[in-house]
Amino acid sequence: MITELFAAFVMVLTFGILFQAPKKSLWLLGLTGTISWAGFLLSKHLIGNVVIASFIASILVGICGEIFARIMRLPVTVFVIAGIIPLVPGIPAYDTMLFLIKGQYLEGVKTGIDTLMIAGAIALAIAIVGAIPPRIKS
After folding, report:
1. 23-58, pLDDT tens digit by residue?
2. Helix (H) or strand (E) holding 28
3. Where do the TM regions start and end (predicted)?
4. Is 131 helix (H, G, I), strand (E, B) or coil?
């Protein structure tokens, strides 16, 4: 698990460097990715559902993004976009296309629905967290 968390940190840090995030925010970007992946792994272990685990991890990304954005005086999107990178369902999306190309339509549709549910959970969680701070006075 420590190796996965370190890999998440490096992956998000590299993403931040590649997309020219402000240098002062890079270590917090990595921390956001690490927290999101830790939340995903813990939720998946406790609940056993990838969609719910993605939702919980995305809530953590949104909260970290709001907090770190206020600390660093940067837009929230800097942290949220980088923080969700470990959660993006790339392998299920690839599997969906592979099943459809091979003509295994039932398996492709099942995997596609799972992929859309994960992506929807991520989007919903970020939207929920993003809607709350304007109502809270700083």
Report:
1. 999 999 999 999 999 999 999 999 999 999 999 999
2. helix 26-47
3. 46-69, 76-101, 113-132
4. helix
What is the C-alpha to C-alpha distance for residues 80 and 107, in angstroms, rounded to an integer? 32
The tally of CA atoms less than 13 A away on the side-chain side of residue 133 is 16
Rounded to an integer, what distance in angstroms lies between the CA atom of residue 29 and that of residue 101? 37
Residue burial 4-35, b: 16+ Cβ < 10 Å; e: rest:
ebeebbebbbbbbeeeebeeebbebbbbbbbb
Where residue 103 falls (left for φ over 0; alpha for ψ -120 to 50; beta otherwise) is left
Token pair in block for residue 66: 């709001």
26 within 8 A of 16, measured Cβ to Cβ:
yes
Nearest to 124 by CA among 94, 96, 87, 75: 87
Domain segments of the chain as ranges: 2-135
